[in-house]
Structures are given as C-alpha cells and as structure tokens.
Amino acid sequence: MTIKDIAKLSGVSVSTVSRVLNNRPDVSEVCRSRVNAVIQSSNYIPNNSARDLVKIRSDAIGLVVRGVSNSFYTDIIRSIEKSIDAAGYTMVMRHIASCDDEIKCGAEMEREKRLRGIVFLGGCHDYTKERIKLLNVPFVCCSYTNRYGNLDDDEYSSVSIADEDEAYKAVNELYRNGHRRIAALISRPDDWSISQLRYRGYRRALEEHGLPFDESLVVSAGSFNIKDAYAAMKEQLNRNPDFTAVFAIADDMAIGAMKRPSGRGANGCPRTAR
Predict the structure, then answer these.
(1) Which CATH architecture has domain 51-159?
(2) Considering the entire predicted model, what is its pTM?
(3) Domain residue spans in the chain?
(4) 34 in the Ramachandran plot: left (φ > 0), alpha (ψ -120 to 50) or beta?
(5) What average pLDDT does range 219-234 have in this prediction?
(6) How far apart are alpha carbons 79 and 194 in whole angstroms?
(7) Up-side HSE of residue 44: CA atoms within 13 Å toward CB?
(8) What homologous superfamily does CATH list for 163-273?
(9) Beta strands in 114-267 (DSSP E)
C-alpha cells in the first residue's frame, strides 16, 4: 500500500493525503476523515521520511510486550535482554495494552528504530499472511503460537508454553481433590491469546471427567490484572456462588480471585488453581 493507493481509494490527490499524514491544517474535515478511514482500514503505516528507506538498519532488536501489567513477563524480559546484549545488539522495548495490535506496533517500531528483528511477547494466535506483510524483518513469537492463524510453519518462529495441556493439568488436579463445580476465570471471550488456549484446557478436563459444562461458571474479568479479576470474582460470588474451586488463567488473576471479597468469611472463598 502506497500513498498513491491511499489517494486513489480516498478519491483525493496525493498532496492531500500527504497533508493529512503530516497533520497539516489546510485540509477539510471531510477529506481528512475520508483519508484516515482508508489508512485505518488498510493498516497503512507511513515512513517518517523518504530517507528512512535508504538508511542502514540499526543494531536494535524490538520487543513488543502485550499486557502491560503482567508480572509473569518480568523474568522473560530480563532473559531476552540478556541474550540480545550477549549477541551484540540493543533491545528496544514497547509495552502495549491487551487490546492493542502488536503487529502494527511492531511495524511502526521497525520503521522508527530501523530494527533488525522483533520479538513479540504475549500476543494473539491468529496472525494471517496479509497481516505479516506489514513486517519487513524476521520476528519471533515468544510464549505463544499461531494456533488460529493461517501462517505456514516456515513463515514464523516461536518459543511457546503448552498452555492448553498445562491448564488441563491444573483443572485435573482440582478434580483429583474432589472438586466438581469448577469455575473458570478468563480475560475476555474474544481474547485470542493464552486465554483461549487455557480455556480450552479447562473445557477438555471437564469433558474427560464427565463434568457438565456450566456457562454461568465462566467468569470474564476483561483483562489479566489483579483489580479486574477481584471485581469479577466478587460479582460472581454475589451472582452464583455455587462452585468450590476456581481455575484462573494467569497468576495475577489468581491473586485477585483469592482476595477475600467483603462480607465473606475465610471459609466462604473457593479454592483457586492456576
């Protein structure tokens, strides 16, 4: 996608698109909205300047971390930085929210910092061939795989955790300890990252043990952080306390779930596994 393509799709001149990209005031709001709509729908990322195209790449490796409050990543980030330093490169890190687009963020970093490569930590599982065309450097998916995307195995590299299998083991352990009404604390139903894989492990364990699936026991916190997990579990206890254990898909969420909601005694809190 080039600036000429943007102009053609927007029905304006190339110079108008250029003025929009540079936030010039001499563009009508109608034209500006039309151009921005095309840019957004096409995932177009402009270079900062034409000279960027001929600059030699830096010695920087980008690290895009999805989920700014996830303490699980602390040691992983340190290890990645140590390995990058040992190889003679510099790490450039950017945190993004769970709902942000890590591919677009990585593409922006690539152009701004002239990166040699990118590591994505904690991203989604549905990359497509069209999406990765935004990237012009090698990339590695760290802590997850492209389970739901359409990439061929030779189109990306990954270092991942067996999320579904480990979630299955956690729920199986709760079953072995006598629990039959097991709630699941997830981030969002539409979160195509580790949340879905661990949720699949939860469902598989229930099915293999012949336990009926109860949708009312699936608790969505909206994020992976402690505060939201606490609020979601408190609401669940008020709405439907008919469960004896909780499978939380992340450590911080388990901490939030284990915090005692006001008005409930210590014996009123279900056991939590993660």
Answers:
(1) 3-Layer(aba) Sandwich (3.40)
(2) 0.56
(3) 3-44, 51-159, 163-273
(4) alpha
(5) 90
(6) 20
(7) 22
(8) Response regulator (3.40.50.2300)
(9) 117-121, 139-142, 157-159, 182-186, 218-220, 245-248
